[in-house]
Please model this.
Amino acid sequence: MFRRFDRFPAAARQGLSLHLIGWVDPGHELPSESHLIIRAKSGEIPLFAGTDHDMHFPVNDVLWAENPPIIQRLPADRILKATMSIEVSLPQASSFSKSEAQHWLKQIDACIEDIVGVIFSFLMPDAHRLRVEVAPGATLEAVSGRNVCLLLDNRDVESRIFLLRVQDYPEGTVFRSSKPFVRVSVKIPGDPSFAFTPDK
Model:
């Protein structure tokens, strides 16, 4: 997936990056608990570290040719899962416009078609929502002219996700946060995810 994404025309993926977000079930625990590694000839390469839910997968021709095994250390009653996410690089750290968001959604639809193929993408709905991750102690607002609508007041100690349908807001709307966004990504239709299960 990473290699295919990197082969997209630069214009098609401008400002976008592909991520695999992992967790361990049950409990939605940190993916680093799985000790998921690539057992390469050069040594073990961890794919998750610390409290980071992002998989850091090395994409290089040497590993591609070697095709080493991926190993995890989890008991049989626990499982490592991951979901695909396409993250947006924001021009401004704490705001974006409806027109910018609509451009990202169109880009994602084109990328999904390339990844899964034209026939399969025909069966999938288009990307319609953004996953806006709001920082602890921050508010998320939609500003249209003089109208300000509070979308989320995050009083938690951890970030919270707000699913945003930008098409429900008037043209010219700006979405702003009182603190920089943790991340903004596109909710991919069908929530494509997979599990790492050991060979029998």
